[in-house]
Design goal:
9% of the residues lie in helices and 58% in strands. With 191 residues, it is mostly beta strands.
């Protein structure tokens, strides 16, 4: 998966330098809150509050179209239910705060000068895999990179994103947690 991320970044750089006559590069920072929940055999939860902070690098290859990469740190909160509470390879019931690094690569379409639609693929890596353990002492969540998707809108400095990532686990029969997240926040353009 690391090769895929490197290839994506290299492709973006090639596009930037290949179409330099039409280019407009932008950089911004973003900060916001999120509501996360997970679905799966061990996870059923209502939305829990978290946050995200990151950057935005965009390249306009047309006057109203851009490729936008958003390296972001996420704190997502999900809740494990009691389905595997008694099992040796089960997990304790309760809230789990997952720290992850995400890299969405999005296509951006400016519908008006102050309103844009975005959508694309997201690469994600869980950072605190060692924090949550199964009843037998093994790590509950799998490490490594995952892919998901993200889409949303921007209205001036305000942004909204919906993201979906499948987090692999070692719980019981390797039950997964499908994490959905609604993000909202503010971004500030540097240039």
């Amino acid at each position: 998966m690391l090769k895929t991320i490197k290839l994506t970044i290299l492709s973006l750089l090639c596009v930037v330098y290949g179409f330099e006559a039409f280019s407009q590069i932008g950089l911004a920072v973003k900060l916001g809150g999120n509501l996360s929940h997970a679905n799966g055999l061990s996870f059923r939860s209502s939305n829990r509050l978290g946050f995200q902070v990151g950057g935005v690098l965009r390249y306009y290859f047309h006057s109203n179209m851009a490729i936008q990469a958003e390296p972001t740190f996420h704190l997502s909160r999900i809740r494990a239910n009691s389905a595997t509470l008694e099992k040796n390879n089960g997990i304790k019931k309760g809230n789990k705060a997952l720290h992850s690094f995400g890299l969405p690569v999005l296509f951006k379409l400016n519908v008006t000068p102050s309103f844009a639609l975005l959508g694309g693929v997201e690469f994600d890596k869980l950072l605190n895999t060692e924090e949550y353990l199964l009843n037998n002492g093994e790590q509950a969540f799998k490490g490594g990179y995952r892919t998901g998707y993200s889409f949303g809108a921007e209205m001036g400095k305000i942004y909204f994103r919906y993201r979906s990532i499948r987090q692999g686990t070692r719980i019981y029969n390797n039950w997964n947690a499908d994490i959905q997240q609604y993000q909202f926040g503010v971004k500030w353009n540097i240039f």
